[in-house]
Specification:
Layout (H helix, E strand, L loop, with lengths): L1 H4 L9 H7 L1 E3 L1 H12 L16 H12 L6 E4 L27 E8 L4 E8 L2
Antiparallel strand pairs: 1-2, 2-3, 3-4
Helix pairs in contact: 3-4
Length: 125
């Protein structure tokens, strides 16, 4: 939480709001979510290319997620996380629990005993 609140855009994120607004994501689905955060638009939809396997991009995203550790758990404020393993994080329309006070924000937080990973994307229209 200190890492998150240390960022100027995230200072107003409240601990209780964060805890109550995120859901767990399986590691394979975390990869899709990392793709959404890295490419496309939250307002206009992810790039269609994210639905096509790309060995270099996918390896890079896996390396980022693996940096948290093998026993990492992942969490997000993306509403499709409610669907568990059926979640489609690359859908063109979705709901989210906005946490940062921007028009829309999507986070992926990875936590292990050794590391914390925070990927967060913000967009204003």
């Amino acid at each position: 939480m200190d890492t998150i609140q240390g960022h100027p855009v995230l200072r107003q994120v409240d601990r209780t709001e964060l805890r109550d607004s995120i859901l767990e994501v399986s590691p394979p689905k975390a990869l899709d979510l990392a793709g959404l955060i890295s490419a496309g638009s939250l307002l206009y939809g992810p790039l269609e290319s994210l639905r096509t396997p790309d060995a270099e991009r996918d390896a890079c995203l896996r390396d980022v997620l693996n940096a948290v550790g093998n026993d990492a758990r992942f969490f997000t404020n993306h509403g499709h996380a409610e669907n568990g393993d059926e979640a489609d994080f690359l859908a063109s329309s979705f709901h989210a629990n906005a946490l940062a006070g921007t028009t829309i924000d999507i986070c992926l937080i990875g936590v292990s005993d050794e590391n914390v990973l925070v990927l967060w994307r913000f967009e204003d229209d």
